Amino acid sequence: MKTLFDQNPREAAEGKPLADRLRPQSLEEVIGQGHVLSEGHMLRAILEGAAPVSMVLWGPPGCGKTTLARIIAEKSGYEFEQVSAVASGVAELKAIFERARTRRQDGVRTLVFVDEIHRFNRSQQDAFLPVVEDGTIILIGATTENPSFEMNSALLSRMQVVVLQRLDGEAMQQLLMRAEDHTKKTLPLTPEAREILIGMADGDGRALLNFCEILFGYKGKVLDPSALTQYLQKRAPLYDKRQEAHYNLISALHKSLRGSDAQAALYWLCRMLVGGEDPLYIARRMVRFAVEDIGLADPQALVQANAAKEAYDFLGSPEGELALVQCVLYLATAPKSNAAYLAYGAAQRSAREFGSLMPPMHILNAPTKLMQELGYSKGYEYDHKAEDAFSGQNYFPDGMQREDYYQPVERGFERDIIKRLEYWEKLREKKR
After folding, report:
1. What is the Cα–Cα distance from 420 to 424, expressed in whole angstroms?
2. What is the number of other CB atoms lying within 10 angstroms of the CB of residue 180?
3. Are 308 and 350 contacting, i.e. CB atoms less than 8 angstroms apart?
């Protein structure tokens, strides 16, 4: 008769959730991370016998971070200690470190796996420094957030960062087949519904297997896409407006607008809205885009962006979202120019470089007799009385050369501005 220790790990795990029962037990069973498991990669070498190093596994939920840590510990012969950053404190960490020191004296090394390591505060992260530094433990942290933002630089500098990817469609199909093989059941889905199920899991292998576990208990007719979405509660897209996905998606929207790709811009707008982003945040970013990337190539862009913000304020959700859609389409299809943005930066540099230079005396007002006697306003030419309403006087400080900060582009309304500037420069040359 088999004991628990004689059983195959999957047989012993019966009764656990399907995702746990199908957790890979070897390198060959890991899917979707070929970019870090191929020949020549550090992780592959460790799994094939090289000494493990402390590392951060950075990737989205359900991509296999915990699984890889367990396999590394098993292949290396290390004792595996798992910690949740949500539920653990410094006292528990110290107890783990003490056990690791005792094992080390007996010739056994310890691998500590910290799930959601980004949730540890600074003092908790600092507690790892001495034991990682002296080799008491090998630390593997798992995080869904950019470690360069969320982890102490001192700790991060002692760890290698391994970037894992969300599971693609092919990897998710493999998971579905594994689930069917393991349970000896077929998912009650049409081929189209099978694809929809993969999309609902949003690259999260654990979520996909949880969906499968629900569907294996379904007793009705085969589900088509419509019936499937009614039967399952659709999982929200991966998005946290307080964390990195927030910045990634607004960056994608901004750069799609700058690239004049209306279709991609619409997609990223909807990704943010579906993910729960504040529409007024998006509106503010579109106002910024109008002045930074369009500027005077289309002066109406700023009007449209502000109008979209006002329309959303007035209508609210869901009607107000259409104003944002209209604005995105307008901004994406408008002529682009960052000439005003560049001019601002150049003028700022001059303002810092030349300091507190006084304006030339002829453009200063002289409201008192003393100021008149000192030469304030002397020689000022009123442009409306000049020929062509253009005096051509100098308006830069004395002792500073004239600068051309603003360089409009040959696009949109700025074409007309170029003609005006060239005309005024010719008049200025005549008057010199």
Report:
1. 6
2. 14
3. no
Q: Which long-range contacts (CB under 8 A, 24 or more apart) does 16-19 make?
A: 17/209, 17/210, 17/213, 18/179, 18/182, 18/183, 18/209, 18/210, 18/212, 18/213, 18/216, 19/205, 19/206, 19/209, 19/210, 19/213
> Which residue, 33, 102, 17, 107, is CA-closest to 72?
33
pLDDT digits (tens, 9 = 90+) for 103-156: 999 999 999 999 999 888 888 898 899 999 999 999 999 998 889 888 889 999
| Strand, coil or helix: 209 | helix
- Both ends of the chain: CA-CA distance in Å? 107
Evaluate the omega torsion of the peptide bond into residue 397 and state whether it is cis, within 30 degrees of 0.
Answer: no
pLDDT in the model for residue 146:
86
Per-position b or e across 192-217, b if 16+ CB within 10 A of its CB: ebbebbbebbbbbbbbbbbbbeebbe
Residue 77 structure tokens: 């012969």
pTM over 0.70: no
Nearby residues of 169 by Cβ (< 8 Å), 6 or more positions away: 195, 198
The 10s digit of each residue's pLDDT in 195-205 is 999 988 888 99
Question: Which segments within 264-337 are labelled E, that is strand?
Answer: none
Distance in angstroms (rounded) separating the CA atoms of residues 11 and 8 = 5
Tokens of 99: 């056990």
